Amino acid sequence: MDDISKLEEKIESVRHELYDAYLSGADDEEVLYISQKLDKLLNQLHSLL
User: Fold this and answer.
1) Which residue among 4, 22, 24, 37 is least enclosed by CB atoms within 10 Å?
2) Which pLDDT score, from 0 to 100, does residue 19 have?
3) Overall number of domains in the chain
4) Which domain holds residue 7?
């Protein structure tokens, strides 16, 4: 599996993590942390494309 595919899988995983946090009523700090993690991954993907 190439780097882009691995990164896309990780992005999907973190997207689900963010959605689950939202559904479970996580506090703002936790949602922000996960959101920033997702932003970093998306930026990495953009730099590879």
Assistant:
1) 24
2) 97
3) 1
4) 3-48
- pLDDT confidence bin for 1, thresholds 50/70/90: confident
Angle between helical axes of 3-23 and 28-48 (0-180°, round to 10): 160
Question: Which residue is it, tokens 């689950």?
Answer: 20
Amino acid (1-letter code) at residue 15: R
Nearest to residue 14, comparing CAs of 45, 35, 44, 43?
A: 35
CA torsion sign for 19, 45, 40, 37 is positive
Contact, 21 vs 34, CB < 8 A? yes
Tens of pLDDT, residues 7-49: 999 999 999 999 999 999 999 999 999 999 999 999 999 999 8
